[in-house]
Amino acid sequence: MFPQGNQCYTYEDCKATADWLLTQTDVRPSVGIVCGSGLGGLAEMLKNQVAFNYKDIPNFPQSTVHGHAGRLVFGTLKGRSCVCMQGRFHLYEGYPIQKITLPMRIFKLLGVDTVILTNAAGGLNQDFKVGDIMIMKDHLNMPGFAGNNPLAGLNDDRFGVRFPCMSDAYDRELQQLAMDVGQELGFGDFLKEGVYCVLGGPSFETIAECRMLHKLGADAVGMSTVHEVIVARHCGMRVFALSLITNQAVMDYDSEEKANHEEVLQTGKQRAEQLEQLIFTMVARMEHNNNDA
Ligand SMILES: O=P(O)(O)O[C@H]1O[C@H](CO)[C@@H](O)[C@H]1O
Ligand SMILES: Nc1nc2[nH]cnc2c(=O)[nH]1
Q1: Nucleoside phosphorylase domain: which residues (predicted)?
Q2: Where are the alpha helices (DSSP H) in 70-141?
Q3: Smaller CB count within 10 Å for the chain: N or C?
Q4: What CATH number is given to the structural domain containing 80?
Q5: Does the beta carbon of 88 sit less than 6 angstroms from any atom of ligand 1?
């Protein structure tokens, strides 16, 4: 019933995992949340928690990165049923791209209609500061340019169409809601919007690469999220995503700064409370998604 190793996951495989989870909990989530590096505290906001270690969930990959606990937490947020990934998967961990994104299809089969993703990212936009929260309005999919797209391979129409549109990937109403909520909470000074660029990692960027990405229109750079967004949109879920600017991308040969994961986690700790408050308030105000893509 559950495939081994690096095999691709079929609709039936995803359904088997979703059904297994549904037998273990009474929570029927409509919102799915993915926690970025150092942002796992989001899951602690859930009430009446039922949590599973990834190693105990059939077909689930394991988290291998510091700052990603590796737990799937079900619970309620302001009365709304949610499921939260405390830890995500990245290409550089060596997983095939279909495995990294498998949880999005499981979310869908659990009944999730809205996905909220967070990530830690390097700031390319010179107006951004460390600690800014960037609402993602679009993305640049660099691995996709080289043919590494999570939808490559046979398409199963039960999930979605062969050629899904991505010009509407990031839900505009939810972006507006985030802006409104952010202003109300007094976060206006550090709430920004912009374009996120995904790279494979795990090495951080060179100075020349940062300059190039900035020229191409990216405001922030990271190693995640976009693959999940593509799969979530393919199966008709509404998507909202936030980047926490944890470090400034180094753009200048005179700079002494060096990107490092410790700084990423440290900034996560400093801004976690506001990020959680923003998402918490948004979930409380969200309308249900009725228009599948
Ligand atoms: O995107 P998340 O998972 O937040 O993590 C980001 O932070 C790590 C680098 O410090 C990379 O994994 C990068 O993608
Ligand atoms: N690629 C990349 N990922 C990050 N995650 C957090 N900061 C960074 C960064 O500067 N570059």
Answers
A1: 31-283
A2: 97-100, 102-110
A3: N
A4: 3.40.50.1580
A5: yes
